[in-house]
Amino acid sequence: xxxxxxxxxxxxxxxxxxxxxxxxxxxxxxxxxxxxxxxxxxxxxxxxxxxxxxxxxxxxxxxxxxxxxxxxxxxxxxxxxxxxxxxxxxxxxxxxxxxxxxxxxxxxxxxxxxxxxxxxxxxxxxxxxxxxxxxxxxxxxxxxxxxxxxxxxxxxxxxxxxxxxxxxxxxxxxxxxxxxxxxxxxxxxxxxxxxxxxxxxxxxxxxxxxxxxxxxxxxxxxxxxxxxxxxxxxxxxxxxxxxxxxxxxxxxxxxxxxxxxxxxxxxxxxxxxxxxxxxxxxxxxxxxxxxxxxxxxxxxxxxxxxxxxxxxxxxxxxxxxxxxxxxxxxxxxxxxxxxxxxxxxxxxxxxxxxxxxxxxxxxxxxxxxxxxxxxxxxxxxxxxxxxxxxxxxxxxxxxxxxxxxxxxxxxxxxxxxxxxxxxxxxxxxxxxxxxxxxxxxxxxxxxxxxxxxxxxxxxxxxxxxxxxxxxxxxxxxxxxxxxxxxxxxxxxxxxxxxxxxxxxxxxxxxxxxxxxxxxxxxxxxxxxxxxxxxxxxxxxxxxxxxxxxxxxxxxxxxxxxxxxxxxxxxxxxxxxxxxxxxxxxxxxxxxxxxxxxxxxxxxxxxxxxxxx
Length: 612
Prior knowledge:
By secondary structure, the protein is α+β, with helices and mostly antiparallel strands. The protein folds into five domains: about 5-90, GIY-YIG endonuclease (3-Layer(aba) Sandwich), CATH 3.40.1440; about 105-245, no CATH class; about 255-375, Nucleotidyltransferase, domain 5 (2-Layer Sandwich), CATH 3.30.420.10; about 390-550, 2-Layer Sandwich (Nucleotidyltransferase, domain 5); about 560-610, DNA polymerase, domain 1 (Orthogonal Bundle). The chain is built from 20 helices and 19 strands. Strands 12, 13, 14, 15, 16, 17, 18 and 19 form an eight-stranded mixed beta sheet that branches. Helix 5 runs antiparallel to helix 7 and helix 8 packs antiparallel against helix 9. Residues about 245-250 have low confidence and may be disordered.
């Protein structure tokens, strides 16, 4: 608790209820947070009241506040402009800052016998030529890739002329007509330089100029009866045209727009921005932020402001978001002032624009997955599952339970764990049900009671029962959910709990809770994830049941032998594993089993080897 909390609250309560900007400072006088308020008294006093409802970031910030200043303004719009200006000047620790450390991009053109083109973030004094700077590394890389494919230049890491040899076998790119095969020694230096110079012209002048120039060269070669050369140039012209056709047009209506989407797990958030111009995707940027509990509406507002605040990117005609944003009208007004023309913010609900938002979100999930070592589609599935179930956070650690028995005998429970959307077999556990063996709901209650008893013993352990799940999924409907809900209440645990319901063909149909069912068939990712969880927990529980049931069958066969009871039968099974092994064992080998006397061994041997 901040020792100055009462003093700061008293100061906040004396503020006027007018628009303004507040500036939080630490004990060293450093600015740690800047915000704006429609009514300063109401907004600032909230920081120094109860901390229970604040996100983690706000609680951390308040802990470090030693004092604050305010600047009054005449309107909310002036507030927003001043807030943006001050944040840009001071870069406070607790404000969202989109740090882009990549800087400008360049296309590097080397000199030498076999020159090459490559991508770089800086200019070195190495006698090379540089094209740029480019604001977008995405555009620079795409241009290089296109130039190499059009002019069939090598895309590998080989160095020429060092790696040229008649013995070399060209790579796959040569065989699919995307490389001229310089490494094989079948291409002259003159042919390579001609293609290379064409690629440089393409990078400098663009597709239209190149097509005109290549057309002239093709006609000249044809006039000189150099038909083979003319055919190669024709192929390059066709390649340029195919490339232009492949640039996917996403919208015939919105010529210029930026699309923002977020993907998050419990540690980080990834912001992805896709930029469209002339109805085509031409640039992308991504930023990894700490998931500090900031509300999505606030996060979108902060992200949009910081993105255009740098001045490195132009404000487009339309900004499309993946959800509602705080201060939407005010934000539109501010962005319109930056652009000098009308700028609108939209949150699409259907049609092509919604498909573009989904594309942006998929890219954000994939980038976050790369950053955290996960799989993009798994992150998306978990996010969507959390959204459908109304969870406060993404369910990264899921426990699932199933009961298996045969007419009430050999009843067992299986617990499987899915971590980051994938089976986590270190967390799997088995339970032999000791109580209500023919009552699935009571058996489920017993299993979960034992599981959380183990949690009480192993609290905060990094593995196994010491971890509390983000979500519990039971193989069953409302009855199982209600049985386990009372168990969670007894332990004082607030863990989201749902059931997984199957249809008449034993296929996953819906998710059950204590008030009904939630259909999931319409969401492909969630349906696939829940189905895989339900199938896995069923497989795990039933395989354990079959194993236990088969052991009991073996045990009952051995107890038919005079002098062999349950304990000795179990000892035989443990030692020999199979009936065949016991049948083939000698008396001496049978005596090696713990608890088996010579007389017992003789009886067992005679049982399996007697002529009768």
